[in-house]
From TrEMBL:
NCBIfam families: PTS_HPr_family (TIGR01003). This is Phosphocarrier protein HPr. Residues 1-84 form the HPr domain. It comes from Cohnella abietis. One of its GO terms (biological process) is phosphoenolpyruvate-dependent sugar phosphotransferase system.
Length: 84
């Protein structure tokens, strides 16, 4: 399952939102990746989330497979769509 979101944080995905994404992803047993410009990044890795380099207005696709994948996608989507 996958869903695409637009990064709304004016400073993009930096350390704080990256940490929120990792914490949210860690709460789900499924595999979760964020995809930007065809590159996949493990949502459970802080280093990967910071290295995604997403800026405000970028489109990010959240891809999850396994148990609770829909809930995981929604939780991460809320973070990506937040403007702070």
């Amino acid at each position: 399952m996958q869903r695409t979101y637009t990064v709304m944080n004016s400073t993009g995905i930096h350390a704080r939102p990256a940490g929120k994404i990792v914490n949210a992803a860690a709460g789900y047993p499924c595999e979760i990746h964020l995809v930007k410009e065809g590159k996949r990044f493990n949502a459970k890795s802080l280093v990967m989330m910071i290295s995604i380099g997403a800026k405000c207005g970028d489109e990010i696709t959240v891809v999850a497979e396994g148990d609770q994948c829909e809930l995981a996608i929604e939780a991460i989507g809320v973070i990506l769509s937040s403007n702070h």
